Amino acid sequence: MTQPQLFEEEDGPEGTAQGQPCLSVLVSYPVDKAYDYIVPEGLILQPGDYVTVPVRGREIPGVVWGEGAGDVPTKKLKSIVARHELPPMPEVERQFLDWVAQYNMSPKGSVLKMALSVPAALDPPKPVKGYKPGVEINDKTRKGLSPQRQRVLEILSDDIARRPSEIAEAANCTPGVIKGMADKGLVRAVEMYSAAPCRNPDAHRPGAELSDAQSEAVKQIAQYTKTKEQSALLIDGVTGAGKTEVYFEAVAEALKQDRQVLILLPEIALSNAFLDRFKSRFGCPPALWHSHLSPAQRRRTWRGVAEGQTKVVVGARSALFLPYMDLGLIVVDEEHDPAFKQEDGVIYHARDMAVVRAHLGKIPIVLVSATPSLETMHNVWPKPHGSGRYAQVHLPDRFGGARLPEIETIDMREDRPERQHFISPTLKNAVAETIQAGEQALLFLNRRGYAPLTLCRSCGHRMDCPRCTAWLVEHKQSARLHCHHCGFETMLPKHCPECDAADSFAVCGPGVERIVEEARGYFPDAKIMMLASDTAENNEQLRKMLADIREHKVDIIIGTQIIAKGHHFPNLTLVGVIDADLGLQGGELRAAERTYQLLHQVAGRAGREEKKGKVYLQSFMPGHRIMEALAAGARDEFLRVEALEREQSHMPPFSRLAGIIVSGRDEDQVIEVSKALGMSAPQGKTKEGQGIQTLGPAPAPFARLRGKYRYRLLVRADKNIDLQKTIGAWVHNIKTPSTVRVQIDIDPQSFL
Ligand code: ADP
Ligand code: ZN
Question: Does 22-92+99-116 match 128-192 in CATH topology?
Answer without folding.
Answer: no
